[in-house]
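Entry 14. Structure prediction run on the chain below.
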Amino acid sequence: MSRLILFSGGVESTALMTMATPDDIALAIRPTDVKDVQAALTYKQSSIDAISKFFNISVHYSEYVLPRIQTKTSHVHQMKMFIGMVHLMVSRYPSIVEVWCGRNCDEPSPAIAPMIEQHMAAWAILNPNVPFLHPLDHLSKVEQMVLIPKEIRHHISSCVTHNNCGYCFKCKEYT
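Output returned:
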């Protein structure tokens, strides 16, 4: 039995990897359109590779090409990218018994909470035997960062400059 971990290489999904076992599967979405700011905002292939190797968790990569309307980036943009592939993975791999998605105690914001609730309601109808969980959503981003071993933290990709600058709005969330 395994869990499917939605893995972006950011703080919350890397914190989930600290609880993973070698039987678990990580799913990463490769952005295919560099103009898709939401998808490519913090994606860094080398981070995903280094973190998954450190935790000895296999990663399944998915790519998508969809025309999308650009909107403000939020937790929901990742959910929209992952949700379709998650359905396919669960149907293909009957060994998946849970889906784990990173989130912190400050998410979702009240503005996007209804959309997340709709996604979760649809998930429960389509996959009633596979819970979609946020195991660490009771912790802040800073508290989740503390769970991550120090020797791997520099690989976390949350920075909009892809260099962990320490100054952009994404880096300031966990410093």
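The mean pLDDT is 82.
Filed with the rest of this week's runs.
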